[in-house]
From TrEMBL, chain B:
The lineage of its organism: Eukaryota, Metazoa, Ecdysozoa, Arthropoda, Crustacea. The gene is ilf2-L. It comes from the Eukaryota. It is found in: Nucleus. InterPro entries: DZF_dom, DZF_dom_C, DZF_dom_N, ILF2. This is Interleukin enhancer-binding factor 2-like. Residues 364-375 have a biased composition (Basic and acidic residues). Residues 364-394 are annotated as: Disordered.
Length: 946, 394
């Protein structure tokens, strides 16, 4: 783009050069053309057309010098008159063209000045009809361009303009080129043909901003050089120019007379005059007013019939009339001239408008011409006038005009609430209510459907143009589209990066969660590294698909994870428990072997009893066959196997837990004798298994258990409960357990305890099948276990009911829940009355009969737990989960709102780019670090204590 | 690398602002997926009944009785209907033939609110009518319209001249006779909404709420015509009137809650009134209207707006805790007190004993955030409060 701009500028310069050299007089641009006016003017014209051509060539982009020569030929071939017209055309076009850069306005003003002086001097210009023709000849002015532009597709806009003057609407429909359409659409607004030539240029300018700016610079600069001598000369010649019969200094532009030459000069240099001049020169100005009435004499445009009448009555107008009478100049009738406005765009109005314009620049003699032209079309004008008057008839918004009264209740002034203006005169009030401003306000604030005549201001025009550009898929829009697409691509890319980042984070979490879940019941052996942040295999195959879960580090999640890390047992604890449990298990196996060995020869002593029992039960229990077969197969073992149950099996160990449970399944109903035998033999076997450790063994007959305890700093006890499936089978199959119980050996252990042990086994199985696989479930159960231990209100909630409830509640969500959400959902369930009377209750899946797992809870306990959960739920909702968890709040990670930054940074860190430590504190990293630190300190402490 | 980072950050920051945390395409690190709270009705299958459901016929009877007490009498209904019909006729006339009345132009007149929905309560004979103006609703225009309607009514019914009153207010005007009141809520067509000037016109929020009222009544007609819903709405409104804690719940929230409680269940059959009433309390107690909950998204607004976000956090807390206490009271058999058949509203705020079980009231959980980080621009209380909570809790 930049390149084309440069070349275009070069083209412009080239075009200018050719124009210059081609000129026969051979004046240099800075030459003094003032000596010979005609030549100068032609030169001026030639130059201007060349400049115009240059601009065009700039706009078109790739112009050969032929373009410039064509323009030059044209300028040269015409008479002075037409050349001047061309100059005017070129000037006009360049003026509107340069209207954007503020620096350029200076020279336009000067140029106008020059033209004015020039036109008053030269008789050739005083003929108004000639003028109208010249301005009509704007069409031929452009046509040559059109002819050459025929070869340049880029300049088709010029062709469009050429045709525009004759039939604007046809152009609109016929031209295929979009640029043209834009130009024409835009051009429909002003009825004055003059600016139309300029507009295509403008359009092209917008499409190639760089190029035109460059062009403006070059041409603008050369113009500056002209300007200065031009204005100076013009001024010097001015006073003597008008032949004055009297000592009257009359300014045609401002319609005033001055007392003397001095004041006249001063007036000419004054701001007011220059402004007027510029206004007079600026063709489109009158047309902007839309439908308006003009007083030709005073060159005053009135917006309505009322205003016009007021003007005619006014002192200023009278003064001007007097002056003109004095000067002997013809006074036009007071009939107003309608300017612009009519949307018919008939040739008549256009002509009238042009005529009117000419008056401003043409001077006194021209006025008559204009008037004749106007008179010819008087009928039309009358219609217009009527239209105008009709439009203004209806005053609106009377109710919004307040009357302000003085103390005596006399109305002294009026206040329009809509327009926020005041007036003292009732007539002014009437005028105001009919006025455009008021109507606009009324339309804006009261009735949007009120019709207010359009008055396209500069801004509006621009807006409309903008709209057009947006509507039509032009170059501009293409560019916009490109930008948008680029932006989208960028976003997509970023999003993808995000996805991977997210995924990586998730994997970390997943690994961690997974590990937490697996570890406690995992095979004995070196446990995996505790924190997830340490070196780990980069990718674990067979990871579950992770997409549906939400990001696991909301504030709640972070708290839950931190709390979980806090209550999770230390490695030493786990190790110690692992050790004593596995030793006990091994020892029990050996006890079993030993008992089987011992029992084989001693069968007469011990076995008969048992056998008798079995035989008695056999006809009743069908399921016993297997046992019977087994017994016949090998040596009938008393102790069939040992199983982990309770928190040990479920992996719900918490920090500080020192008691775990094992269940020994016996072939027969466990008896006290059996318990004694095991208890007697176990120490020996333990000594074999772990010679270096000392264990203490207690019998707790009423619990149907024996307790193995290690002797050391951490006292860990393993409760080994003896039970047998027979106890339950019996219960399930025949209702009258009393009968069989009577036949039981006298020292059979407590039945309920044995049944409980069996239930614990079932619970462990259920847990592993249902809860372990459920996302966040185990973690939430651990948290709630901690809560039940910590908060007295929650104490009565037994762990089985709690586990069951958590599983049901979390599973019923039907989606993966992050730990924080899962915990909240459990509280939601309790808060909505899960434990209250009237609720369905917690059906125990491990029992044949429908039993509420929470049945031990009393009504008051249920009520209290519910109330507590309800409060906890609201605490969680209002970001106080730390209160529920009994911990300190974790400060939100830095850049909470834009969490993205931190992660960005982290990614950057991972590439080893920088080591800014800011980002390390948040989210997963923070947790990781914390845990590592905690672990380290713990280790240190342990070392010290050891 | 550094450049990329800088650019990325800058662009992103600039881009996020207009987009907000809504469901837009693009990198959404703040994607907040609100979750529905636990709802026993929706996961019934996970909680098979241990014992058969208790008999609730007495409760149901009490609910129906209460509803009968709350419904307007035929005389009241007739009075309201009468006045509404007259006013509607006058307005229709104004649309067809404005005559010399030019203060405003009426686009449309619609009945809305409890009158339209058939959820009116006895003793509250107020019907709502929304008038959509084609012109902009200046206070003068509204007053002129009120006068005009009133005058027309008076000419129609000369005997009512004395009792008919017209009172302009912020929302439009009220026309009442001795028996009934019609609130005429003025609004304007959508295109005019952005042209409003607070100095001159009625408040934009009010105008929008009136437009919303039209959408609400339309939605209600299409979706919530089931009579159980209407009964439940009446009961909930009564509840709201008697327990201060429910005061922040708007009628529209109650409508949606009742509709949700009755129809949003696996079988898609309307729940019986007793279950639905209990469910409303359960839902509120489980935090349906708490931050972080998906709540009920407004069916009449675009962009998934959760209706409860119209309440402040403090109000959300209050509503939730009131529902939680009432739920416990209800489960211990205190339905008569809840329905207002016995006792008073102190059960929601004071300790009470039911069958030897002590039911205690709850405390507020919401705390005002101690101080805001400086970069958080506190634009408007509610959203600024609500958003971080919502967006960071994801």
């Amino acid at each position: 783009m930049y390149w084309s701009g440069l070349s275009a500028a070069a083209n412009a310069a080239a075009a200018y050069q050719t124009g210059q050299t081609g000129y026969p007089v051979g004046h240099t641009p800075t030459g003094t053309y003032t000596t010979q006016r005609a030549a100068g003017s032609t030169y001026d014209t030639g130059y201007q057309t060349a400049a115009a051509a240059a601009t065009h060539s700039t706009a078109a982009g790739t112009y050969p010098s032929a373009a410039a020569s064509a323009t030059y030929d044209y300028g040269y071939g015409r008479t002075t008159q037409t050349a001047a017209a061309a100059a005017a055309a070129a000037y006009d076009s360049s003026k509107t063209y340069y209207a954007q850069p503020s620096s350029a306005t200076a020279y336009t003003g000067a140029d106008t000045h020059y033209h004015n002086v020039f036109s008053t001097d030269k008789a050739a210009y005083t003929n108004a009809s000639a003028y109208t023709t010249t301005s009509r000849q704007t069409t031929p002015v452009v046509t040559p361009k059109a002819s050459y532009t025929g070869t340049y597709p880029g300049a088709a806009a010029a062709a469009a303009t050429a045709t525009y003057n004759t039939s604007p609407y046809a152009v609109q429909t016929t031209t295929a080129n979009k640029v043209c359409c834009q130009g024409c659409n835009y051009l429909n607004q002003p009825t004055n043909p003059l600016p139309t030539t300029a507009l295509p240029v403008y359009m092209q300018q917008t499409s190639q901003p760089a190029a035109t700016v460059a062009a403006v610079k070059t041409t603008g600069n050369t113009w500056q050089t002209f300007k200065k001598p031009g204005t100076m000369q013009g001024k010097a010649q001015k006073p003597k120019a008008p032949p004055k019969p009297q000592q009257l200094h009359y300014c045609d532009v401002c319609k005033i007379s001055c007392a003397g030459p001095q004041t006249y000069r001063e007036h000419l240099e004054g701001q007011k005059h220059k402004k007027k001049e510029a206004a007079a020169k600026a063709g489109p100005t009158p047309s902007r007013h839309g439908a308006s009435l003009r007083c030709e004499l005073c060159d005053v445009t009135c917006t309505g019939a009322d205003a016009y009448a007021a003007h005619i009555r006014g002192a200023k107008h009278q003064k001007v009339v007097k002056l003109h009478q004095k000067l002997g100049k013809p006074i036009p009738s007071t009939d107003p001239v309608v300017v612009g406005g009519t949307t018919k765009t008939s040739t008549t109005t256009a002509g009238a408008a042009v005529g009117a314009k000419t008056t401003t620049s043409g001077g006194t003699a021209a006025t008559t011409g204009t008037l004749t032209a106007t008179d010819g079309k008087k009928d039309d004008l009358k219609d217009d006038l009527l239209d105008l008057k009709e439009k203004d008839v209806e005053p609106v918004g009377q109710e919004y005009i307040e009357e302000i009264k003085n103390e005596e209740g006399k109305v002294i002034s009026f206040n329009c609430k809509l327009c926020e203006c005041r007036f003292n005169d009732p007539n002014a009030k009437e005028m105001h209510m009919k006025g455009r401003r008021h109507r606009l306000q009324y339309k804006k604030k009261v009735n949007p459907e009120l019709v207010v005549e359009v008055k396209p201001s500069l801004r509006q025009r621009k807006l409309q143009e903008e709209k057009l550009r947006r509507q039509q898929p032009g170059l501009h829009q293409l560019r916009e589209e490109m930008w948008r697409r680029r932006e989208e691509e960028r976003l997509l890319e970023e999003e993808e990066r995000w996805y991977w980042e997210e995924r990586r984070r998730y994997e970390e979490e997943c690994e961690y969660l997974d590990w937490c879940r697996r570890y406690p019941r995992g095979p004995p052996g070196p446990p995996p590294m505790m924190p997830p942040g340490m070196p780990r295999p980069p990718f674990m195959p067979g990871m579950p698909p992770m997409m549906p879960m939400r990001r696991p580090d909301s504030s709640d999640d972070r708290h839950v994870l931190a709390k979980h890390a806090e209550i999770y047992p230390k490695e030493e604890e786990l190790g110690a428990i692992q050790k004593i449990v596995s030793n006990t298990e091994k020892a029990l196996k050996m006890v079993s072997d030993y008992l089987a060995e011992v029992d084989a020869p001693k069968e007469q002593q011990v076995k008969p009893k048992a056998k008798k029992e079995v035989k008695e039960e056999d006809p009743k229990g069908d399921d016993d066959k297997k046992d019977g077969e087994k017994k016949e197969d090998g040596p009938p073992r008393m102790l069939k196997g040992v199983m982990r149950v309770g928190i040990l099996a479920k992996g719900l160990l918490l920090r500080g837990d020192t008691s775990v449970q094992l269940v020994v399944l016996c072939g027969d109903k466990p008896t006290r004798t059996l318990l004694d035998r095991v208890a007697d033999n176990l120490p020996k076997q333990l000594a074999v298994v772990a010679p270096e450790d000392k264990y203490e063994i207690q019998r707790v007959v009423e619990e149907a258990a024996l307790v193995v305890q290690n002797i050391g700093e951490q006292r860990i006890s393993v409760n080994v409960t003896l039970t047998s499936p027979i106890m339950r089978e019996q219960l399930l199959h025949d209702g009258d357990s009393q009968v069989t119980a009577a036949k039981d050996p006298p020292d059979v252990l407590d039945k309920q305890k044995c049944l409980d042990a069996l239930a614990a086994l079932r619970h462990a199985k259920w847990f592993q099948a249902r809860a372990n696989g459920l996302q966040s479930c185990v973690m939430v159960i651990r948290i709630l276990r901690d809560l039940c231990q910590r908060v007295p209100t929650w104490g009565p909630l037994n762990s089985w009911a709690m586990e069951l409830m958590c599983e049901k509640v979390i599973a019923s969500a039907g989606q993966h829940l992050s730990p924080g959400d899962a915990l909240r959902r459990v509280f939601e369930a309790l808060a909505s009355g899960l434990l209250l009377p009237g609720s369905p209750g917690l059906l125990d899946p491990c029992e044949k009969d429908p039993i509420d797992a929470a049945s031990p809870l009393s009504a008051q306990e249920r009520e209290d737990i519910t109330a507590s959960a309800q409060h906890a739920l609201r605490l969680i909702a209002f970001r106080q989960i730390h209160k529920v968890l009994g911990m300190d709040p974790i400060p939100p990670p830095k850049f909470q709102r834009g969490g993205r930054f931190t992660r960005k940074r982290r990614r950057d860190n991972s590439t080893g780019e920088g080591n800014d430590s800011e980002g390390e504190l948040d989210g997963g990293d923070g947790k990781k670090d914390k845990k590592e630190d905690g672990e380290d300190s713990k280790m240190d402490m342990d070392k010290e204590t050891k | 690398m550094v450049m990329t980072r800088g650019r990325g950050r800058g662009m992103r920051g600039g881009m996020m602002r207009p987009m907000g945390p809504g469901p837009h395409f693009g990198p959404k690190m703040k994607q907040f997926v609100p979750r529905l709270p636990f709802d026993m009705v929706l996961c019934e299958s996970a909680f098979p009944r241990v014992k058969p459901a208790p008999d609730e016929s007495a409760f149901t009877q009490a609910l129906l009785k209460r509803n009968a007490d709350l419904s307007p009498t035929p005389a009241e209904q007739a009075a309201v209907l009468n006045l509404v019909t007259k006013i509607q006729a006058v307005m229709d006339n104004l649309i067809v033939d404005p005559g010399n009345f030019d203060a405003c132009q009426i686009e449309e007149v619609r009945q809305v609110g409890s009158y339209k929905k058939g959820t009116m309560m006895t003793g509250h004979n107020v019907a709502d009518i929304v008038v959509i103006l084609k012109t902009l609703p200046t206070k003068e225009a509204v007053e002129a319209l009120g006068k005009k309607v009133c005058d027309d009514l008076r000419t129609q019914e000369p005997q009512e001249v004395l009792v008919l009153t017209m009172l302009p207010n912020d929302r439009g005007f009220e026309i009442s006779n001795s028996e009934a009141t019609v609130r005429v809520l003025v609004t304007t067509i959508h295109q005019n909404l952005r042209k409003l000037d607070p100095e001159l016109h009625l408040d934009q929020k009010i105008l929008q709420s009136h437009l919303a009222a039209i959408r609400h009544s339309r939605w209600f007609e299409e979706n919530a015509h089931h009579s159980t819903i209407k009964v439940l709405i009446r009961l909930l409104r009564d509840l709201r009137g008697r327990f201060d804690g429910f005061e922040p719940l708007s009628p529209w929230m109650l409508d949606l809650l009742a509709h949700y409680a009755i129809l949003n269940n696996p079988s898609r059959q309307a729940l019986p009134i007793n279950s639905a009433f209990r469910r409303c309390l359960q839902l509120l107690a489980a935090g349906l209207f708490l931050p972080g909950s998906a709540g009920i998204s407004d069916p009449c607004e675009g962009g998934n707006i959760r209706v409860h976000t119209a309440m402040t956090l403090e109000q959300q807390d209050l509503v939730c805790l009131t529902a939680q206490t009432l739920l416990r009271v209800l489960s211990h058999g205190g339905y008569k007190q809840i329905l207002g058949l016995e006792g008073n509203s102190s059960i929601a705020s004071e300790m009470s004993v039911w069958d030897g079980v002590v039911v205690s009231a709850l405390e507020k959980a919401y705390e005002k955030p101690p101080e805001r980080p400086p970069q958080d621009d506190d634009t408007d209380n509610m959203d600024a409060d609500d958003d971080p909570m919502e967006t960071t809790d994801n």
